[in-house]
Design brief:
single chain, alpha/beta, Spore Coat Polysaccharide Biosynthesis Protein SpsA, Chain A, 7-stranded mixed sheet, about 40% helix
């Protein structure tokens, strides 16, 4: 089964070498694809030096646009499955096997930070926002999720084909993508994983910008059709 690692990266030259080394150590058989999202540093050079395929965008589209390109590439190259992995060191390569194991009975698997015993912690305001999103997504999808914004996700080919053209491109796209997948009838599951603090680069969030996108996302979710498609039968 051919597996691709899709890594969106914007100015992550400092953290990327360590991320690629960790993936090589834990999952050497997976093909790494870095989407350089209009970086102004040496992200592309770091990706190639680490043995990854690097797809460069001429300007910054944001994580949604970068991921859509990665999904399209995975489909065009005939991969059976792929997983999304952060370039900033937050995701743990040792957790990939647990994430992919979830694809045995699901079309899309989300690595949740809140399903284990270590108690991943977030700030009060962020925690309140995440809690509101969890409740809203649960009502819309008819299914409870503990980590709607996790970017550590695995996908089977039918989901890759769908996201290659339909993946949302606005900021905080991960929540929209989750709702879209459930509405499309895909089977979505969560598995508990360990995550770390970012090891390099710069966080893309700012309080005012984050508040704007949070409100936009709430409007999108509330205005969307709450109806869900027929669940697809997962192929073994």
């Amino acid at each position: 089964m051919r597996t691709a690692v899709i890594i969106p990266a914007y100015n992550e030259a400092d953290a990327l070498p360590g991320v690629l080394a960790a993936l090589e150590a834990h999952v050497p058989g997976h093909d790494v694809v870095v989407i350089d999202d209009g970086s102004t540093d040496s992200t592309a050079s770091a990706a190639r030096a680490g043995g990854a395929t690097c797809l460069r965008l001429p300007f910054n589209l944001g994580i949604g646009g970068a991921l859509r390109l990665g999904f399209r590439y995975a489909v065009e190259q005939g991969y059976d499955r792929a997983y999304q992995f952060d370039a900033d060191g937050q995701h743990d390569a040792s957790q990939v096997s647990a994430l992919l194991a979830g694809l045995q009975d699901a079309d899309m698997v989300i690595g949740t930070r809140f399903g284990g015993d270590d108690g991943y912690r977030v700030g009060r305001s962020r925690g309140l926002a995440m809690g509101l999103l969890r409740r809203m997504v649960g009502q819309i999808c008819g299914q409870r999720f503990t980590d709607t914004s996790s970017g550590f996700r695995a996908f089977r080919r039918p989901v890759l084909e769908f996201f290659a053209t339909e993946y949302p491109v606005e900021y905080m796209e991960s929540v929209e993508a989750l709702v879209l997948a459930v509405r499309q009838g895909f089977v979505v599951r969560e598995v508990p994983v360990v995550m770390h603090d970012r090891s390099g680069g710069r966080a893309s969030t700012r309080n005012l910008r984050l508040a704007y996108h949070f409100v936009r996302l709430l409007i999108v979710l509330l205005a969307g059709d709450p109806g869900r498609g027929q669940r697809r039968r997962t192929q073994s």
